[in-house]
Amino acid sequence: MSISIFRSLTILALVGSFARGAVEGAKQSDAFVDTIGINTHVWIPEYVYADTNRVADALKDIGIRYVRDLPHDPNALNILSSRAGVKIDVIVQNFDRDGNNILDITSVNAVMNRVRAINSIQYLEGPNEPEQHEDPDWRDKLVAFQTATYDAAKADPLLLNKPFLAPSVGFPNLVPELANKVDRGNTHSYPYGFQPTNNLASGIARGAQLANGGGVIASETGYRNDTVHYNQYNSPVSEQASGRYLPRLFLDYFNAGVEKTFSYELMDSKPDPNFLNGFPHWGILHSDFTYKPAATAIKNLIDILEDPGAGFTPDALNFTLTTLSGDPSMIHHTLLQKRDGTFYLAIWQDGLSYDPVAAADLNPASQLVSLSLPQDFYGGIFQPNLSVDRVHTFGLTSQMNLNISDQVTIVQLASVPEPAAALTLLLGGMSLMVRRRRR
């Protein structure tokens, strides 16, 4: 059986098409959800993060499980963990609003005491972008500070088993000796206002230099929305574009093997309606806690794919994606599975959603992709940018055509129908039997 998804699609001859097919092992659906994290600034009292309860409620509503922040206000972080259930990646450094003394070796004991007061630590992390503070001695100070805090953590029964991330150093080759004082690599792999794959490979390679055999965490990445301040290194995109980019970013980073990906950041840090400053506009929420498109899309993505519970070994699926129009190299996908056996195949186009130089949204043409399956499946189509609910439901089918845009499309594939659908099918079959008997 076959089905064409959306009325605008038609069956096309496979002339000039490109097919990619193989047996592919799925990943746990919840394992993907568990890679999603976000940055906060609960330590800055004049920012909107000062309303800690409201911040926690927003995190819980979206479903994000990990937060990255400084240890300056352990009580605020403990409110986030108790109220929203989040775990903390705590940046182990001295607190200084100007960033001038973050590597003060005399502050190690005070910093570690604040860290110990935080209840739900997932990671410890070395100092944030230490070479950015115009200190000519930053390298030697960083080596001494990271060594002291790492050794203190490994001597503490409460912190011993918490992975200690490398500092987010732009040039890790300058501090090779730190490879023995970290458990994971760390990168700030911002896409510079372009599609999520931009700077991803180089960012992972940079983080791997200090990974010490462990994985790599992207402790900062993301998009800012002050579209009037162009910067070639961190150029802005529209709110609409970041809403399209961020679900793809989390999936692309997951595909690349990044252990955790922390978007920068949860909130626009303070009101700035006239875009006088670029910094306050990195959030997926506005400063008044209203949702930007990115927050809605991420919340829907998590709601669709979350599947908490004990670990399991996912199955493999033999399927073929055939590109019927456009560039096949632009089509990305992730195959996931939940514990009930249902597959979730996320597909998206790695296209530009925004031109940061011209400051204009882009709408790349959808590509027509044919999905062929080894057997008939029940299921539906999700589009997290539009809704948490299915935008289309189908009965038994083994082939479908899909319009793939720069927004994530998720194909749900179940070998048995959901109870409501099964009841409908059963009643339909009983009705057919009655009609046949009357004849």
Write a short abstract of this structure.
With 439 residues, the protein is of the alpha/beta class. The protein has nine helices and 19 strands. The strands form three sheets. Strands 1, 2, 3, 12, 13, 14, 17, 18 and 19 form a nine-stranded mixed beta sheet that branches. The protein has an eight-stranded parallel beta sheet with strand order 8-7-6-5-4-11-10-9.
What does this structure look like?
This protein has 439 residues and is an alpha/beta fold. The chain contains 9 helices and 19 strands. The chain has helices spanning 29-33, 52-62, 74-84, 108-116, 138-154, 200-208, 239-255, 293-305, 419-438; strands at 3-4, 18-25, 27-28, 36-39, 66-69, 87-91, 121-125, 164-165, 185-188, 216-221, 261-263, 316-323, 331-337, 343-349, 354-355, 360-361, 367-382, 390-404, 409-414. The strands form 3 sheets. Strands 1, 2, 3, 12, 13, 14, 17, 18 and 19 form a 9-stranded mixed β-sheet that branches. An 8-stranded parallel β-sheet has the order 8-7-6-5-4-11-10-9. A two-stranded antiparallel ribbon has the order 15-16. Strand 6, helix 4 and strand 7 (121-125) form a beta-alpha-beta unit. Helix 2 packs parallel to helix 3 (74-84).
